[in-house]
Amino acid sequence: MRMKMFAAESLEAAKALIFAEMGDDAIILSEREVPGGVEVRAATDKLGGGMVPNESRILTRLGAAPTPRLVESPVRNRVRDALLWHGTPQRFADRIADAGITGGFESEDPSTALAAGLDSAITCDPIPPAPHRNIVLVGAPGHGRTATAAKLTRRAAVAKAEVLPIAADLDHTAGGAQLAAYLQREQNQIRSVNNPNDLFKLLKVVQDEGKRCVIDLPAIIPFDQDDMASLQDLLAVINAEPVLVISAEGHPEDLNEAARAFARCGVRRAIVTKLDVTRRRGGIVSALISAKIAFSHLAITPFIGGGLVPATPSRLAQLLTEDAPAHVALKGAA
How far apart are CA 46 and CA 221, in angstroms? Predict the structure, then answer.
């Protein structure tokens, strides 16, 4: 199969070029808007011709310097195709794939090129074992907030740093009992509160003792205006950083909208969960990048001990390599 990139001032004009050069059997693989027109990738089973993109006629006529176009790269195409397989939007896949082979970077390994592309687009900001501020975990139902609270508590203990787990059982769903079970403690060993006033009082005690805590909030539906308004009111009066706990499962557009909703409430970091049970992981990556939320940690196992790894572009690239098992990124879990 021979592939080639065509550039023209419109999609119709590009198709005319494609069919004129490649014949009526040509297949359109992808299309995207660029300054001055569109770029369309096409393929044919017929032999012959090169694979260097054409330059836009409209830019030539206007005398403008054409935008540099990439010569077809097998590595770039494998990165793009892997991202598409994982469910990322077309433009996102093209942008990351392009970034992975430009800027003087060259690699024959798609995972390395993908890591370079992600490095240009994402921010990784892990939470230290002894956080500088109290942490309040927020997220939708079923995304693993309570398990993540237990993992952060256990991770701090391993690092000889004390972090107090607090179950903010504001919806009276026995959050304290669940957190105690995860940590294998008696329920009276877990600090649990049932209303906002008790939470404020407990946080004052924790502050006076010079300690840090991780707060497990009830589930919040990001598409419910009342839920989000209540979260904003709570965050306005407590001295704690909201950290999003979000599953890699779900439709990419739902993940995108949820991430953006939490970002509007002040969320700047996220812990991604359920990577061990999700095959297509691209939706959550593109969602957090779109919402400008930093990747903090990746949860790649259900076990409380060793259940979190700091997020890095290389780890994400490994997880976004088609059919890569989750354990490839487990090294360094804490």
Answer: 53
Range with the poorest average pLDDT among 93-102, 142-151, 225-234, 252-261: 93-102
CATH fold of 134-329: Rossmann fold (3.40.50)
**With bands split at pLDDT 50, 70 and 90, how would you rate the model's confidence at 35?**
low
Phi-psi category of residue 36: left, alpha or beta, with phi > 0 → left and psi -120 to 50 → alpha: left
Residue 276 tokens read as 């061990």
CA 135 and chain centroid, separation:
20
% of the chain exceeding 70 in pLDDT? 83
- pTM score of the predicted model: 0.75
Strands (E), the chain: 2-8, 27-34, 37-44, 134-138, 163-168, 191-193, 212-216, 240-247, 269-273, 294-298, 309-310
- For residue 226, give the amino acid letter: D
Q: Phi/psi of residue 94, each to 5°?
A: -65, -40
Which residues, including other chains, have CB under 8 Å from residue 116's CB and lie 6 or more apart? 99, 100, 101, 103, 105, 107, 313
Biggest alpha carbon distance in the chain? 77
pLDDT reported for residue 7: 78
Structural domain boundaries in the chain: 1-69, 73-121, 134-329
DSSP structure class, residue 222: T
**Higher-confidence position of 93 and 180:** 93
Token pair of 61, please? 């006529």
Beta carbons within 10 angstroms of residue 99's beta carbon: 20
Q: Which of 278, 287, 247, 321 is nearest to 92 (CA)?
A: 287
Question: Is residue 195 within 8 Å of residue 201, measured between CB atoms?
Answer: no
Tokens in use for 16?
């005319």
